[in-house]
Specification:
- The protein contains two helices and five strands, in the order αβββββα.
- With 113 residues, it is α+β, with helices and mostly antiparallel strands.
- It has two domains: 39 residues; 72 residues, SH3 type barrels (Roll), CATH 2.30.30.
- Strands 4-3-2-1-5 form a five-stranded antiparallel beta sheet.
- The termini are far apart.
Amino acid sequence: MSPDILSLVIMIVVFIAAMYFFVFRPQKKQEREANEMRNSLGVGDEVTTIGGIIGRVVSIKDETFVLETTKERTKIRFLRAALKSIDVKAADATGVQKSNDKSESDEKTEESK
């Protein structure tokens, strides 16, 4: 083998390795995180779709979920793949609500003293 061919082969191998570490691995990690988020979807979660629709999940089936969007309780069915982010988990929202209720009751007892 001539030195020119050997250096060309080494450059190609280095280029492929760089592509793997800078493109393919981060993309796989991002896909895995998105799948975990979609699988953790629960009823009552506040979500945003890739189309920008914000609402609360009212039911979940295999690959779809139903989103309630307005005060008039408009319901729209989406594929799980259309989920962009879970803004507020239902468990977190109830925890925040309970702490707010507790602080309000504490304030009322202090006022009555």
